[in-house]
Amino acid sequence: MTTEHPVAAAPAQTTKSFVELKSVAKRFGSNTVLEGLNLAIPKGKMVTLLGPSGCGKTTVLRMVAGLEKPTEGRIFIDGEDVTDRSIQQRDICMVFQSYALFPHMSLGENIGYGLKMLGRPKAEIRDRVREALSLVDLDGFEDRYVDQISGGQQQRVALARALILKPKVLLFDEPLSNLDANLRRSMREKIRELQQQFNITSLYVTHDQSEAFAVSDTVLVMNKGKIMQIGAPQELYRQPASRFMASFMGDANVFPADLHRDTVEIFGYHIPKPAAFAPGMQQCTVGVRPEAITLGLQGDDSQRCVITHVAYMGPQYEVTVEWHGQPLLLQVNATQLQPTAGDNFFLQIHPYGMFVLV
Ligand SMILES: Nc1ncnc2c1ncn2[C@@H]1O[C@H](COP(=O)(O)OP(=O)(O)OP(=O)(O)O)[C@@H](O)[C@H]1O
């Protein structure tokens, strides 16, 4: 796919821009929502704020947009201090959960509205609207109205309306929350495709872990106004920095373990030691992801387990086994085994799904 496009072809401004928050705090009256927040979005990257409801993600996004002012700290876009600038003076566009389209305007008028306000000539607006619609796979939809298209299509129009302005920064506020599961997948693919195609520096807010992983270069996990961990999706999942992170990033079984030179020992069972384990440690707590555990018909006594609970999930079963008196959650691929409570197996743990907890 070409990276040249007359609507959103990355101009110098777009590719060079970045966002930085320095020592930002936000208080609403006596309620401190954020404290000492530092955040940097490299040029052309997508950073996602992920966290439980109320942790402060939308407040961060609104401060970057200029809809809220930090109580302390400064915000920079493209090297300029924008802390005291209004939303109109920041060269950013926002894509909202609610689409925020004008119902009395055609889709073409909605998308071209920003350019019209900038006083661009009619012919240019018409051409750029057509191209923006094409980018979001809505060719020929100029004359339709909001009530004549689906929710998924409305969100594509909202995306086109943002892209047409070639903003320095794109902000996404839970943009998929109102869409059903199938539409969510195709919309997030479209967002990621366009963001990467045009190297648009972007900040994305969601409380959905799989959505955050699918669209982001970097994910920043927040809890109660604090940053818990920042990293690439694989890093956060495979090397969570705390128990909160281990459980927030998915299911995890947690055990005390003895560390040997080349192996990790849990209940007498030896597993090859993953590279993440620091040399010199002798004991630690390990986390094991459910998908890293498999059931087989052969093994030794240290691997013996009995199934205590089975839940059918479609592609896989979620299975709880008892292992050395401890419950252990694992997944069984439905094409491989039909597990039943009471069955005896021998388990194996793959080192890929194991991490150290400190
Ligand atoms: N305008 C406001 N006045 C007072 N308190 C506010 C205001 N905006 C946000 N808050 C408070 O700040 C905290 C963080 O809210 P925020 O909306 O940033 O969280 P969030 O992580 O985006 O949550 P959600 O996923 O539910 O949107 C909450 O306790 C909220 O009640």
* CATH homologous superfamily (4th level) name of the largest domain: P-loop containing nucleotide triphosphate hydrolases
The hetero compounds bound to this protein are: adenosine-5'-triphosphate
Percentage of residues in helical conformation: 10-25%
Sheet with the most strands, sense and barrel status: 6 strands, mixed
Mean pLDDT: 90
Tell me the strand order in the biggest sheet: 6-7-8-3-9-10
How many beta strands in the DSSP annotation? Answer: 20
Helix and strand sequence: HEEEHEEEHHHEHEHEEHHEEEEEEEEEE
Which residues sit in consecutive blocks of at least 5 with pLDDT less than 50? 1-17
Q: What global shape is seen?
A: elongated
CATH architecture of the largest domain: 3-Layer(aba) Sandwich
Our count of domains comes out at: 2
CA distance, first residue to last residue: 45 Å
* Tally of helical runs: 9
CATH-defined fold name of the largest domain: Rossmann fold
CATH class of the largest domain: Alpha Beta
- Counting helices, strands and paired strands, the structural category is alpha+beta
Can you tag this structure with a few keywords?
nucleotide-binding, Rossmann fold, 2 domains, alpha+beta, 5-stranded antiparallel sheet, 358 residues, binds adenosine-5'-triphosphate, OB fold (Dihydrolipoamide Acetyltransferase, E2P), 6-stranded mixed sheet, elongated, ATP-binding
Question: What this model shows, in words?
Answer:
By secondary structure, the chain is α+β, with helices and mostly antiparallel strands. The protein folds into 2 domains: 17-244, Rossmann fold; 251-357, RNA polymerase II/Efflux pump adaptor protein, barrel-sandwich hybrid domain (OB fold (Dihydrolipoamide Acetyltransferase, E2P), Beta Barrel). Helix content is 25%, strand content 34%. The protein has helices spanning 12-16, 57-65, 107-117, 122-135, 151-163, 181-197, 209-215, 233-238, 243-248, and strands at 19-28, 31-41, 46-50, 72-77, 80-81, 92-96, 169-173, 201-206, 218-223, 226-231, 253-259, 263-266, 269-272, 283-288, 293-296, 304-312, 316-323, 326-333, 344-349, 354-357. The chain has a 6-stranded mixed beta sheet with strand order 6-7-8-3-9-10, with helices on both faces. Strands 13-12-11-14-20 form a 5-stranded antiparallel beta sheet, with no helix packed on it. A 5-stranded antiparallel beta sheet has the order 15-19-16-17-18, with no helix packed on it. β4 (72-77) and β5 (80-81) form a beta hairpin. The two termini are 45 Å apart. Residues 28, 31, 33, 51, 53-59, 207 line the site of adenosine-5'-triphosphate. GO terms for molecular function: ATP binding; ATP hydrolysis activity; transmembrane transporter activity. InterPro entries: AAA+_ATPase (IPR003593), ABC_SmlMolc_Importer (IPR050093), ABC_transporter-like_ATP-bd (IPR003439), ABC_transporter-like_CS (IPR017871), Mo/tungstate-bd_C_term_dom (IPR008995), P-loop_NTPase (IPR027417), Transp-assoc_OB_typ2 (IPR013611).
